[in-house]
Write a structure and sequence with these properties.
- There is one protein chain.
- The strands form 2 sheets. A 6-stranded parallel β-sheet has the order 1-8-5-4-2-3, with helices on both faces. Strands 6-7 form a two-stranded antiparallel ribbon.
- The protein is an alpha/beta fold and 389 residues long.
- Helix 7 runs antiparallel to helix 8 and helix 8 packs across helix 12.
- Strand 6 and strand 7 form a beta hairpin.
- The structure holds 5,6-dihydroxy-NADP and zinc ion (ZN).
- Zinc ion (ZN) binds next to helix 7.
């Protein structure tokens, strides 16, 4: 096991009716906030009215900015920064999913910065200050509610880039599983794939003697595998929604990654796909991850045998471990298909004419490699895209 520091300061307020506490939780930090949200699901569900009332009752003044879209855009972030400066806002409340939260985090680092906020996503600078961000989560998926990351898309160049820095972890995250009852089946499934991917990015490691975190990862995966089909059958199954929501957060608050090196190549590749084609992140991962597995499993067959056996209950073929490993990969593809996700780029609507461009952008023309488990060059990324065809 590697040395590590684990500190996650996000206060989690979890359970039924917890969204009614948003005013009280926010008032602990600020008396005037930017209320940031997405394309309108919170208005349809009634959450918007409840949040506004709770803030009002707690004496918190509200300035609003809606319209954060899936794969949130730099343009709205820039608008948010100007708005916060103009209205002298010192706190951002994000009500929605990963896209809204990531957009809020970007605004939060942009407000106190003299330069262009894209510098932080382009690797030209590291933010030293950020406004605090609070969250009311409506979809378990990205884990942004307690992660130190934000992913923003710049339409200029179709670039989707991430920033990871401790100062953007939200100060609180309110998580009421009932708020997720209204999620369309496809979004529920995309969220599940993202959560599984966050776990698997940590699970496939070269670090040895990580038994405890291996077991945590396996428990997280098994919890998603058993509860998501139950939700798809009965969207208002509170207990199943609660399980998935909690795993979703812990899967990306880095507990599962303590003491071990992660991989993250599948995420990097997916970001190239959604940067150009604007696909749902989870759907992109359902396509990329199994292809990545096929490309790299020979690097450590034993780890893939463990994955197949412990997560998917595949009986180990000791005479042919490769067959066991491949069966595990087949099972995850089968699972994604069973919950309505694409497993090929064609199903995702991505043609092969831009594979080379994506492979090149992913490694910045082989200036870097991607992935910790196996270090991938541009030609490997191209092969993975071809396997996902
Ligand atoms: O915009 P609205 O109208 O709210 O609709 C959203 C959106 O269309 C809808 N939705 C959310 N909650 C709902 C709901 N519809 C009905 N009922 C509800 N309760 O769902 C759609 C997807 O929302 P989005 O926020 O885009 O989903 P998600 O949480 O999956 O976020 C995806 C973004 O997060 C990034 C992804 O790259 C992507 O841009 N990620 C962020 C990470 C982080 N910050 O740590 C890590 C991840 O790996 C990921 O890269
Ligand atoms: Zn993700």
């Amino acid at each position: 096991m590697d040395n590590f520091v684990f500190q996650n300061p996000t206060k989690i307020v979890f359970g039924k009716d917890t969204d009614l506490q948003v005013g009280e939780q926010t008032a602990l930090h600020a008396k005037k906030v930017l209320l940031h949200y997405g394309g309108g699901s919170i208005k349809k569900s009634g959450l918007y009215d409840r949040v506004k009332k709770s803030l009002n009752d707690a004496g918190v003044e509200v300035v609003e900015l809606g319209g954060a879209q899936p794969n949130p855009r730099l343009k709205l972030v820039r608008e948010g920064i100007l708005l916060c400066r103009e209205k002298d806002i010192q706190f951002i409340l994000a009500v929605g999913g990963g896209s809204v939260i990531d957009s809020a985090k970007a605004i939060a680092v942009g407000v106190p910065y003299d330069g262009d906020v894209w510098d932080f996503y382009d690797g030209k600078g590291t933010p030293q200050k950020a406004l605090p961000v609070g969250v009311v989560l409506t979809i378990p998926a990205a884990g942004s509610e307690s992660s130190p990351s934000s992913v923003i898309t710049n339409d200029d160049g179709a670039l989707k880039r991430g920033l990871t820095v401790e100062i953007i972890r939200p100060v609180f995250a309110i998580m009421n599983p009932v708020l997720t009852f209204t999620l369309p089946a496809f979004q529920t499934a995309c969220g599940a794939a993202d959560i599984m991917a966050h776990i698997m990015e940590r699970y496939f490691t070269n670090t040895e003697h990580v038994e405890f975190t291996d077991r945590l990862c396996e428990a997280g995966l098994k919890t998603i595998i058993s509860n998501v089909p139950a939700i798809l059958r009965t969207p208002e199954n509170y207990d199943a929604r609660a399980e998935v929501m909690w795993v979703g957060s812990v899967a990306h608050n880095d507990l599962f990654g303590t003491g071990r090196e992660g991989d993250w190549a599948s995420h990097m590749i997916e970001h190239e796909i959604s940067g150009i084609y604007d696909v749902a992140h989870g759907a992109g991962l359902a396509v990329v991850f199994p292809a990545w597995m096929k490309h790299v499993y020979a690097h450590n067959v034993q780890r893939f045998v463990q994955f197949a056996h412990r997560v998917w209950n595949v009986e180990i073929d000791f005479g042919n471990p490769e067959a066991t490993a491949l069966e595990g990969i087949r099972r995850i593809e089968q699972f994604f298909t069973s919950i309505g996700l694409p497993v090929t780029l064609a199903q995702l609507g991505v043609k092969d004419d831009r594979y080379a461009e994506m492979a090149k952008k992913c490694t910045q023309g082989d200036k870097f490699t991607v992935g910790g488990f196996v270090k991938l060059k541009s030609k490997d990324v191209h092969e993975i895209l071809t396997l996902a065809r």
